[in-house]
Amino acid sequence: MRKRLVAACTAVAAFGLLAAGCSSGSASSGGGSAAASSGGHVTLTYWNGFTGPDEPAVTALVKQFNQSHPNITIKMSVMPWDVFYQKLLPAFAAGTGPDIAAMDTEQLPQYATKNVFLPLTSYYANAANDTSSLVPAAAAASEVNGTQYGVPANFAPLMLYWNKKLFAAAHISGPPQNWAQWQADVVKLSHGGSSPQYGMALAENNTIAMWPILLWENGGGITNQAATQSMLSDPGTVGAVTQWSQLILKDGIAPQNITGAEADTLFQAQKAAMEMNGPWATTGYQQAGVDFGLAPIPAGPKKSVTLADVVSMSINAKDSPAQVSAAETFLTWWSSKSSQTYYAVHTGFVPTTTSVTAADLAANPDVAQFEAVSGEAQAYNLGTQYTNIETNTWEPAIEKILQGANVASTLDGANTQVNGYLGG
Amino acid sequence: MRSATDTPVQIPAAEVRPPRRRARRGILSTGWALAVGIAAALIIVFPLVWVFASSIKPENEIITAHPGLFSLSVTGSNYVQAWDAIDFPRLFLNTVIFAGGVTILSLAFDSLTAYALARLDFPGRNVIFVLVLVTLMLPFQVNLVPLFLFLNDLHWLNTYQGLILPRATNAFGIFFLRQFFMSIPKELEDAARVDGASEFRIYRTVVLRLSVPALLTLGLFHFMYNWNDLLWPLIVSTNSSMYTLSSGLALFLGQHVIEYGLVMAGSVLAIVPMVVAFLIIQRRFTESIATSGLR
Amino acid sequence: MPTSSTGPFTGSTARRRALVARVSGPFATRTRRRRLLTAYAFMLPSLVIMALFMFYPLIRAAWLSLTNYSFFGASQFIGLGNYTHLLHDPQFWGDLGNTAYYAAVTTPVSVILALGLALLLNRRRLPARGLLRAAIFLPAVVSLAVAAIPFRLLFTPSIGLITYWLGALGIHATDWLDSTTLAMPAVIIVGIWKNVGFYMVIYIAGLQTIPAEFYEAARIDGASTWQRFRLITLPLLSNTTMFVTIISLIASFQAFDQIYVMTQGGPAFSTETLVMLIYREGFQNFSMGYASAIGYVLVLIILLFSLLQMRFFNRRAIRY
Fold first, then answer.
1. Which of C32, C36, C61 has its CB closest to that of B142?
2. DSSP tally for chain C: helices H, then strands E
3. Cβ separation of C264 and A194 shorter than 8 Å?
4. C-beta atoms of C168 and A194 within 8 A
5. Alpha-carbon Rg of chain A, whole angstroms?
6. I want to staple A402 with a disulfide (CB 3.0 to 4.6 A). Which of A113, A151, A256, B251 is the partner?
7. ipTM of this predicted complex?
8. What is the set of domains in chain C, with CATH numbers?
9. pTM higher than the cut 0.90
């Protein structure tokens, strides 16, 4: 036993060292320190969280870029978003950050203000980069305090998914056009009992922003658009929260406190008749056999608006000029008509460039519908205090309200907390 | 301190029971034990059975309004897709190297340390033991960033040694083996000591041979824990070709869409080797007890 | 079988004198020094690795806890500022309560269930013993983060299999993970489910070191099952029990994986534990200094409880 143990030990150690020696041992060459360029060839590292069904399309596009640009190689590293956020700052602190990083624009301000990303003012000013054909809402989402820090990687407005079968069963002819119809419809489509059905799957944590849309449409919001002042005690906000929380608590139109993933599963299982969701869900719902329609979010009392969910790509502030130039080439290529058409058709995201027409998207008709509402799309921006406001204040507040707490006082408490974070 | 030299049982004569009734009760109680055992096993295994059942269903039947455990339409497509999507052979190799390397090194180092703590009397022994325990209490998140920065300074990120060496010894293993060593009767060692054997020889020939069940158990635990470790390989490697199976699985969890069928199939693929390993060790376990000469 | 004749203090005066001579005097000093060197030689690999990869980062984290480090920008030394802040932080106290709740339920239940199952499945004549043990051990083989996904699905209101079956039986059991009162029991159940098989296997290893002769002798003397358990099994398992209880308590205090996947600490922070707070403060709020301080407080708490447990068990330990 002992001899075998020693032998095994030695073997593993030897193998380990051998493998390490000829393995892909060297860490990513990022951070501008040793610009990995030899004779003009630049290698860039690109970190993102495009896991799941998004991944094949992104990988294919990066491969296409590498093949068509012999002097540039992009080495992409995909990891789950939470791991991504866990590693990013430590990696930057250690000088091994990626050359290009994709990130949710809601998170971008926190990183931009730490000066890890390069301001892209000159990139946007350069007409050769054709940034004027970017969808305005998508491009604006990566602005932090007026300075551009990113180029959109993907762009997704939300629409109202509605289940045609459940609507027909409730004798409702079509999707609601405004809040009055919407609120009436959700009640009609909900029934409790041992196998409940919900009028809408409304998620409030770990989700794309659904509640903020409701707040905006009533003239309220979590903060003002510049994220300098809390709006949680505004009448528009309080009104929206009161109306919809009452519907949930009294009429059971939605389960209390569900995550985005749970909302998706409810709609997919046809236990919820409506859901506000992005274009990524169409394939899954189709495969699940859900007969759904897409409609713009019903117009609110004050506004008709939807969410612009944007992931943008930023460049490492420490990159050398050669690396920056190569990265900018990639960003421009990514935003080109052919790349975006491929991406949109294969993933369902709306193209980030206006040069793609509906005809180009014929292979994926749902995308065209989403593109049609991109004009009303608004980015969810909470500035540098995103985590403090969203995770530490807003989500617990709405969770408590949905468990029966008093709306006005809970929102007042949250309002004070948010203003505290914003430096009020 | 109570010692085993006290007679463990003092039974008044009035409690003696006739043997015949005990034999019949033996069968009854075995039957009852079996029933409870089966019930417990079924309840515990249920979620994993559900994972397996879901992995062979088409995706649209996993999330449905009328859920059932098994479905009539059985499909292997999830497995095929999962295998292709994550370069299974490469990740499998990485996981074996990682988990295997850690296990072997850890067994060696842990048992050496545990022997010192259990059998050698030296000043500072209790302090060292407490220090070892303290490492067990560290939440991983506290050490994460400083450790990452340190590994980076050593240029050990994205390497096998960076992955394996920080895990090559383990307070859990040391603690476990120390307890085990302490419960082995001392006569054999004392006899060897009186004969003038060195401590290392005693360790090697006496203690290790008697500890085979514990070493097997611990080896299995180490292997299993590192086989399933999601976060550590993701932190140490940025190169997805260095990922392990569990980390690779995490890539199926998309930001917006979770492909449940793939996740389930991938999970089954990752679990099966561990289950097989356990079943093998389980049998050797009992064998080594029989041949250890302890009873 | 251990007897009393090997102890150093029984036997003749001459032997005792010889022994005393052995433990003092010049020979003894050399022996003691040699013993010390031998001991450290044994422990060297482990100590080196621990020093480099556990203690050094720990000390660095200690330094961080005295600053307001947040990855970039000016990192100032603020002394005990983080520690005083956490004493006044309602989030810290709330999470401490959650952690205590989790540990107070998970640990005893896991340990007792594990012991019960070990006794059950250690009986020699039980058919399919190996298979049952493997089944109960199975959750330990699965990664918790991945196992939590089916649990989340199974408990999802109205489409989860469990809630569906319960609904079919007329039990309207919804909102496990969405209720501030039921979410914690749900993650506790998953925590127990995950580890009970693991502790059971450790107990089985311990049970198998108890010589069968003891039970034979007791049975011949007419001891009942309960007496055999109380007077033989329990005492001789005390090393194992101490181990399992300490490990279980440490694991409970560090509960993270399934909570992260199932509830993310919600709803309304009702399932957030201290480790999750460390994660949130460190990696979402970027307050690494503050997170390190919380980490240290947690380590101190765990250390305190573990020392208490060790003192408790040492008094009852069996030494051969």
1. C61
2. 16, 0
3. no
4. yes
5. 24
6. A256
7. 0.76
8. 85-315 (1.10.3720.10)
9. no
